[in-house]
Amino acid sequence: MADFDVIVIGGGPAGYVAAIRCAQLGLKTALVERWLNKTGQPALGGTCLNVGCIPSKALLESSEIFETLDKQGKQHGIKATSLEPDVPQMIKRKDQVVAELTGGIAGLIKANGIEWLRGQGLLRPGRVVDLTDLKGKQSNHSAEHVILATGSRPIELPAAPLAGERIVDSSGALDWESVPKSVCVIGAGVIGLELGSVWRRLGAKVTTLEALDTFLPAVDGQIAREALRQFQQQGLDIRLGARMTATKLNKSSISIDYTDAAGAHKLRVERLIVAVGRTPNSESLAAPEVELLLDERGFVHVDEQCETNIPGVYAIGDLVRGPMLAHKGSEEGAAVAQRIAGQDFHVNYACIPNVIYTHPEISWVGKTEEEVKAEATDYSIGLFPFAASGRAKAMEDSVGLVKVITCATTDKILGVHIIGPHSSEIIGQGVMAMEFDATSEDLAQIVFAHPTLSEALHEAALGAEGRAIHIPNRKR
Ligand code: FAD
Ligand code: AMP
What we know:
Elements: E1 4-9, H1 13-24, E2 29-33, H2 46-51, H3 53-76, H4 87-111, E3 115-124, E4 128-133, E5 138-148, E6 152-154, E7 167-168, E8 182-186, H5 190-201, E9 205-210, H6 221-234, E10 237-240, E11 243-249, E12 254-260, E13 263-269, E14 271-274, E15 278-280, E16 313-315, H7 326-340, E17 354-356, E18 361-366, H8 369-374, E19 379-385, H9 390-394, E20 401-407, E21 413-420, H10 423-435, H11 440-444, H12 455-464
Parallel strand pairs: 1-2, 1-5, 2-3, 5-16, 7-14, 8-9, 8-14, 9-10
Antiparallel strand pairs: 3-4, 4-5, 6-15, 11-12, 12-13, 17-18, 18-21, 19-20, 20-21
Bound molecules: flavin-adenine dinucleotide (FAD) and adenosine monophosphate.
């Protein structure tokens, strides 16, 4: 008999959710996790809680409060004689938030009777997991089922090797204790934009180099153009079609070489953030005899229900295909646990929300206008600008818009795209509508509280039918 029903390797949002759901379903479960936090203590929560979603949002919140008070305080009737960021306190608060949340996960693991095997796991044939514990001691543990959830790590660029506090990846950029005068961010993806925003708000001059000519290619074009305009107005210097080719560490600065359509250029900054994407942690996860199949980019190959080529071995989260998002991994974790327990696997990959937590926030679900057009679907669009939202005006935060895309024949909602205040909260309603196969008429018939930002979604749905109230409707 195996030692466990299920062993989960990796305790990030994919793995710890899988473990909790397995335990809830009565399966004897172990969770293998090797993470040591800043104080050298073992910690759960993976990238998301320790160096990803949560700490970035903590610093985005602190820096946004600072910038709002600094730039809009007077208008709101708040006088302050002097305002300056206390960066060590911001970092301390961020670390406290992380400690509370990771401690909470450890509590949940214990409360659910899950055995936390602290250390590095390696899959061997026959669903045996070799554990090298934090002191280097080896042991092995067998299971009926193994769930691989070892996540991902930042991609490194040989042309910009990490160098202490001066050239950092996303984790390093969450720990600076002072505001650099100038920062270059390589990569205008989600992480680069969020981290660039934090340090710009706190006073750094931020230049972002992006190799692609298109800004945010996965985002609806209209929303991406508006986002670029807003970020540039805020002072974020985003250079598109600009590929970093080399860096040099000088005594007190970094020289960066990059090329664009006009030729070769040099940039000199105090600090550099490399944010060029993430790569799956798949190479030292399984012994070669296991013959675990990977795809050409190193992601573990899985079927539509997250089973690998090895029977009884599953893989979830950033380690496998699909968007590298915490909630996508968590849903896969819960679904795999249910599958193991003989229940249904359910993840609706067409309805996974995406959010960029800049200001304004950018959120979307479903298809972009470009995708709908490419499919030759006959579609309608409903648009509502936050400039016409009473709540947004009252907040002094009325930049952006809501865009609802519907099928012109069935009225079914195909996509919801928002750039604007707290859009990360509004998008949930779009996700719910799409999950329930709603039409814009369904959304139009729902009563939304006034004044709320969500009313903009209501009005955009009305607009798709040419009957918005608070803006003139376009001729149909
Ligand atoms: P991870 O969170 O990477 O966890 C994997 C765990 O496995 C790690 O703890 C690792 O130590 C452990 N592990 C690896 N190998 C082994 C081994 N052999 N043995 C034992 N343990 C092992 N996503 C969002 O949805 N929203 C956001 O706002 C967001 N913001 C982000 C901001 C930043 C700066 C970054 C870097 C990422 C952000 N993400 C965000 C992405 C999100 O963090 C990831 O999608 C998510 O953490 C993936 O979860 P996971 O469980 O698959 O992997
Ligand atoms: P993401 O994968 O969404 O985090 O985005 C990372 C971005 O970094 C992508 O848009 C890449 O085009 C960009 N990128 C990768 N390498 C370079 C480079 N050498 N110079 C500038 N941008 C880069």
